[in-house]
Design brief:
Blueprint (H helix, E strand, L loop, with lengths): L1 H7 L7 H28 L2 H42 L12 H18 L6 H31 L15 H9 L3 H25 L2
Helix pairs in contact: 2-3, 2-7, 3-4, 3-5, 3-7, 4-5, 5-6, 5-7, 6-7
């Protein structure tokens, strides 16, 4: 219950452990949901509908947890970037905005997917696409920005270590979709650790 309260407390970062649990449940729910959706469309039996209902509930709850978690990470990072902009006048020119459209598409697809997951067979696929896009854009944007930040802060005699060393290209997006979030789940802990490292490094700069 404590971790659940932390997840929905907008003033705090989400619990990494809870997000990993949500990722695991979401992956399992997607796998079972695919089977249930095929059975329902093929036969439309009472037991199949009940099975689908269970998978829909699991996908909704775990998907909502991931959605809120990624929003909180995005909000935490934006807040520290705002503070850095106040401390370093030219820092604001580094903040990327080119991928904002894809981020908004991920947000919109996730919200629509949460609704469709509860009412339609295969509705979880839209939620899956939205969350994967949201996660991919968050990580890829941070990785691109990190290189620019390292150059910027080195000119101010501040050294930044590399936190996001992995690749977040189109293949990451495709693998996560094809594996029904399995690829994202396998990478989730290291991705969350990278975001934690990214945030802490910049908070340390603010504390100097």
């Amino acid at each position: 219950m404590k971790q659940l309260n932390e997840l929905f407390d907008l003033k705090r970062k989400p619990s990494n452990q809870l997000m990993v649990y949500c990722g695991l449940i979401f992956f399992i729910a997607n796998f079972l949901g695919l089977i249930a959706s095929v059975i329902v469309v093929a036969s439309w039996s009472l037991y199949a509908n009940r099975f689908l209902g269970v998978t829909q509930g699991l996908a909704f709850v775990s998907g909502l947890g991931l959605f809120v978690g990624f929003l909180k990470w995005r909000g935490s990072i934006r807040e520290v970037q705002r503070q850095l902009s106040e401390k370093f006048a030219k820092y604001s020119t580094l903040i990327l905005t080119g991928d904002e459209l894809w981020m908004l598409l991920g947000l919109s697809a996730s919200v629509a997917g949460l609704l469709l997951t509860l009412v339609l067979p295969f509705g979880f696929l839209l939620l899956l696409a939205g969350l994967v896009l949201l996660e991919h854009q968050l990580l890829s944007a941070m990785k691109s920005l990190e290189a620019e930040e390292q150059k910027f802060f080195s000119e101010n005699d501040v050294q930044l270590s590399t936190c996001l060393s992995k690749t977040y290209d189109a293949s990451y997006l495709i693998y996560s979709l094809v594996t029904l979030y399995g690829h994202s789940f396998v990478r989730m802990q290291e991705n969350l650790d990278a975001l934690e490292c990214y945030l802490k490094a910049r908070q340390d700069i603010l504390g100097r």
